[in-house]
Amino acid sequence: MSEKELGRKWDRCLADCAVKFGTGLGLGIVFSVVFFKRRTWPIVFGAGLGLGMAYSNCQNDLRSRYVLHSKVAKYFSFEQK
Amino acid sequence: MLRVCWKGAHAAARVSCYLLERSTAGKIVAASLLTVGGGLGGTILYAKWDPKFRANIEKSVPYSDQLFEMALGPPPPPLVPLQKKPGKIEPLQISSLSEASKESKQPKAKAKKSDPEPVEAPPAVEEAPAPTPQTLEERKDHHEPALKERPAEEVSARLAQQDKAEQDALAALTAGLEESLGSSAKTTLQAIGAQEAALTAIATHTNKLKEAMDSQTHPDEKSTQWKALNEALSDRTRAMEEAEEALLKAKGELEILRGVINSAKQSKIDAARPQILAAEENLHSMIVDLDKVVTKVQTAQTEAKIVSQYSELVNEAKAQFQQELANITPEIQANWKGLSGKLSADDLNSLIAHAHRRIDQLNRELAEQRVREQIHIEAALEQQKLEDQKALERAVASALEHRREDMRLEQEKKVQEVREVMEAEMRTQLRRQAAAHTDHLRDVLKVQEQELHEEAQEILNSKMMEQETRYRRLTQEQLDTFTLDMNAAYARLKGIEEAIDSHVIAEEEARKAHQLWLSVEALNYTLKSAGADSPTEPLEGAVGVIKENCAENEFAQALTSALPEESLSRGIYGEASLRARFYDIRRLARRVALIDETRNSLYQYFLSYLQSILLFEREQVAPPVKLAPEDLDTFRLLAYATYSIERGDLELAAKFINQLRGESQRVAQDWLKETRLTLETKQVISLLSAYANAVGLGTTQAP
After folding, report:
1. How deeply is B54 buried, as exposed, middle or buried, from its count of CB atoms within 10 A (0-12, 13-18, 19+)?
2. Structural domain for A54, as ranges
3. Number of domain units in chain A
């Protein structure tokens, strides 16, 4: 059913967002603790990174139908006499 | 461009730095103003440089196009590719013209060449067909009319042709004769002249010689005389030679003339005979003249011979006397002139004695001679007589010859005349006879033809009439009887056949209609098996049954094959389930109303959702009869569709849903497909049932 597709996409989107946000946050915390002396900015950075990636992914998925795929064709020349 | 921006930025930074030292609020305001101004200026400058960028900004930011126009002027016009002109006009016409002129020249040259040729051909060569074969043929025709009859025109034509041919030959002959006559006459005259010249030369020579013999002249004159004599001699010899030559030439010409006359005689043309005769006469006279002159010359020659003999004798005697004298008086030279005074008495005496002795001797010789002379004269006379006789005989013979010749010529002339007359007479008689014969034959034949023709025609006509009438009568009788019988039989047969057929057909039709109706009912029943959300059973079975039952019904077959494949294999959804689904579709379509190919980012999605929440409209709107372009808005369409669905018009709703565009369209795709399927199947089935009903009605027979 084509009407269910949109719903599915949104589900994927949210799941992806959660995962990425969580991962980003986690990594940010790790980095902040390990390398950056418990500063806040790596955490924020990581979370933001994760959210951004999720956003981009979601957008791509939603617009995948409308994107034109192109291929670069090789150039053949035939000499005819 | 970038440097300008860079400079602007720098300036802004410097100013902001400078301002930073003053008050913070003022600083902030100033800084923000500077930034905004810098951005604007940079945008304007870049737009001036890149028209695409300008177009982008104009599209996305409202009222920017007015700003740009104020600042930069109107946008540059878009580039239009130049259209190349079509190909050049080729000068074909000139070459075609030249070709045409060349071709026209050639036939002209050819025509000119062919013209002189036929001009040469017409001068027909006229061969003279021998007249005798022609006359023979004509006679043969008269004797055997059965073979081929020449018409009078042909005969006269032939005769005319003959005459013409004769005349041409005659003209040629006469020309030849005249020519040769002329030349021979000239040469003959020349010969005669030469002979006469020779004659005179001989006469002069002889005279001179005689003079020289009778020498009583002075010695001085004697030498001149001898010289003159020599000259005369040479003249004579030359004249003789010339005469000989001329004579030969004349004789040759005469021979030629004789040959021409003979050939003319052989050609056997009657009209030329008088001319031939005349030519012969001329020839004869020339020969006669030549002979006369020749005889004259011969006599002159004999005379000259005698005289020369005499002169020789005299010279001999003189020489002898000289010698004797020299013997007697050896010491004295023979020069009498220088002799006076030198001679002695003895010499004189001896000389006188010798002279006396000589005189005596001479007297004795003279006496002897006189006697001998008599004898000689007699002998000479005899000889002369003989010679004269011979000459006479010769002359007589030649005269006789000439006479004979004359007679012959006259005879020929007479024969010629008679022949001509006879020829003409015969020709006219023959012509008359031929004409009469042809006329007679023609008349007889004509009459006969007429009679026979009429007879035959009459007989033919009568017979034909008889046969025709009989034939017509018979055929008519036969036709009538036959037609009657046939009509009766045919009518009965037709009646029987029709009755049977109609019965059979009616029964058959009834049965078929019944079956069809039953199967269509079965199909309808299967439609009812649709659940709330599940499709019906596959319609294959029922449709198979229908196909089996009415295999020969084309309409039913066509309809059953028009059913879509999906409905047969999978079944279709019921109208209720479709309706329920529709509301889901509607909600979703409203939510993604703003999404299409160009707008499909997440932000757009957010906006679209916002729009669907905030937009308030009626759920159902009655659709207009005609759709205008503003009705193609998603929400409107959905309203129309909802209205139609509520009224049970699935088809109209499907039509409206079909007009959706963008993401809404994609969302509604499946539902649309299912609806189409259902509608198609329903349409076909309704057609089938209508048809079955109609057929059934048609075949029921009223009791």
Report:
1. buried
2. 2-74
3. 1
